[in-house]
């Protein structure tokens, strides 16, 4: 029954917002908890994609196209960031032979 | 707009001139381009419309021009003082300079944005080259480590910022900062979405400017990055981030002042204490600079807590004075060139090379805020503006200045000591290059006579 009403009226904004918030939280927790730098990079991407979803949902809600254009900018920047991030990781792997962020503790004090 | 186009072309040309492997040619072309940009900005100041001024995303108003000009001056100084290091790797001389200029482009976009598109793009154009530059010493694990730390915190902050922008868009339905302001003025009841967005954007800014409790990355990154990049981060990145911060919060969020002011008051106090108290026990020079920069972020935040008509100008003047002192100190650090960057390595600098020692002492005193120097006037403007509204905050700030004087003076004493008292630390030769001497000369003149700018102010 619930599914039928949802299909009829379209999925309401709340569901998108909740889904985006959950995805964003998973991304944040991943960045904070995981030790593998590549996983951290993926979690950052997850955060950005949660934002994309939220942007598109709000854009449809407001009936303006601004935010959908914003999504493209976010995608471009995310690609640039991923490129730079992966190159930094390769560089670090050459120097230290590991991508475990727990091992990168030479700088402290 | 014209200034941005010139700057972009300068960066591009600089990158391609790099193929010629002639460092001096690269240097002169890039500096020429930067001067051209500055000239275009000054023209803009006197003739406020140019052929692209109808574009709404970027507006070169007086505020943006002042911040941009200072950012350009700082970038030229950093290119000069770091040229010796850039030149040592001939393949990459142009890359260093080109990336610095691209980053400067981002800083200028960040102080002149009119909507969230440009703000976000400016922030990323500012940050991404710096992630690369921080790891510029490719065979040094410390440099790569600092690069990764900066990248992860930066990318995380970007995610948080975007999340905040999305919520704000959900509440207001627009990305333009003046329309957001309009919305808050007219709204009878502001939905909680807007507050969520505001908090996320605020945390992202605190990450970028390195304010407590989000400061933890900055000492590590400053320490590991090559010295010129550290100088750039301290001077130009901070300038861009603070420019965007005050612009966004005084325009878009001006109606929510009562909501964010208490939070910022608390954060300013926390930042000052964290910066100053941690700086006391530092033995490495760049870490000392990093904690001192955190403390200075705390003082700068006072301009945002106590908003008056002069806030933006006071902030500008403060960052101006802070930047000169920091660039001078970073240049001195490059001249001392100690492998482990110990403060003890500065011992005897005052006798071995009186001019460099003098500049270092002046810069440290300027950071401490000793009267005839520019740093004092910066602090004085901020405190004098705020004292009638929030005397308790100024009392805390003065207490912190007192703590600050302790560690700055300790470093001054090290510089003035006799060299070679203990044999553990081998004496460095304090080699200088003419360009570094020019930078030091400009910085010391600015610090000694920068108070004169107040006449115009």
From TrEMBL, chain A:
Topology relative to the membrane: Multi-pass membrane protein
Source superkingdom: Bacteria
Keywords of this entry: Cell membrane, Membrane, NAD, Oxidoreductase, Quinone, Translocase, Transmembrane, Transmembrane helix, Transport
InterPro entries to which the protein is assigned, alphabetical: NADH_UbQ_OxRdtase_chain4L/K, NUOK/Mnh_C1-like
TM stretches of this protein: 15-33, 38-58, 70-93
Biological-process GO terms, alphabetical: ATP synthesis coupled electron transport
Enzyme Commission number(s) of this protein: 7.1.1.-
Record Pfam families: Oxidored_q2 (PF00420)
Cellular component, GO, one term: plasma membrane
Subcellular location as annotated: Cell membrane; Membrane
Catalytic activity: a quinone + NADH + 5 H(+)(in) = a quinol + NAD(+) + 4 H(+)(out)
Top class in the EC scheme: translocase
GO molecular function: NADH dehydrogenase (quinone) (non-electrogenic) activity; quinone binding
Purpose of the protein: NDH-1 shuttles electrons from NADH, via FMN and iron-sulfur (Fe-S) centers, to quinones in the respiratory chain. The immediate electron acceptor for the enzyme in this species is believed to be a menaquinone. Couples the redox reaction to proton translocation (for every two electrons transferred, four hydrogen ions are translocated across the cytoplasmic membrane), and thus conserves the redox energy in a proton gradient.
Similarity comment: family membership: Belongs to the complex I subunit 4L family.
Quaternary organization: NDH-1 is composed of 14 different subunits. Subunits NuoA, H, J, K, L, M, N constitute the membrane sector of the complex.
Protein name: NADH-quinone oxidoreductase subunit K
Source organism of the structure: Taishania pollutisoli
Gene name of the encoded protein: nuoK
UniProtKB/TrEMBL annotation, chain B:
Major enzyme class: translocase
One of the record's GO cellular component terms: endomembrane system
Signal sequence extent: none
Catalytic activity: a quinone + NADH + 5 H(+)(in) = a quinol + NAD(+) + 4 H(+)(out)
Primary subcellular site in the record, as a coarse category: membrane
Gene Ontology terms, MF aspect: NADH dehydrogenase (quinone) (non-electrogenic) activity; NADH dehydrogenase (ubiquinone) activity; quinone binding
Transmembrane segments: 62-81, 93-111, 117-136, 148-170, 190-211, 232-253, 259-277, 289-309, 315-335, 355-374, 394-416, 437-456
Domain NADH:quinone oxidoreductase/Mrp antiporter transmembrane: residue ranges: 115-403
Lipid bilayer topology: Multi-pass membrane protein
EC number(s) from the headed UniProt entry: 7.1.1.-
Biological process, per Gene Ontology: ATP synthesis coupled electron transport
Subcellular compartments: Cell membrane; Endomembrane system; Membrane
Keywords: Cell membrane, Membrane, NAD, Quinone, Translocase, Transmembrane, Transmembrane helix, Transport
Similarity field: Belongs to the complex I subunit 2 family.
Subunit and interaction comment: NDH-1 is composed of 14 different subunits. Subunits NuoA, H, J, K, L, M, N constitute the membrane sector of the complex.
HAMAP family found in the cross-reference section: NDH1_NuoN_1
PANTHER family, alphabetized: NADH DEHYDROGENASE
Role of this protein: NDH-1 shuttles electrons from NADH, via FMN and iron-sulfur (Fe-S) centers, to quinones in the respiratory chain. The immediate electron acceptor for the enzyme in this species is believed to be a menaquinone. Couples the redox reaction to proton translocation (for every two electrons transferred, four hydrogen ions are translocated across the cytoplasmic membrane), and thus conserves the redox energy in a proton gradient.
Protein known as: NADH-quinone oxidoreductase subunit N
Organism: Taishania pollutisoli
Lineage of the species this protein comes from: Bacteria, Pseudomonadati, Bacteroidota, Flavobacteriia, Flavobacteriales
Encoding gene per record: nuoN
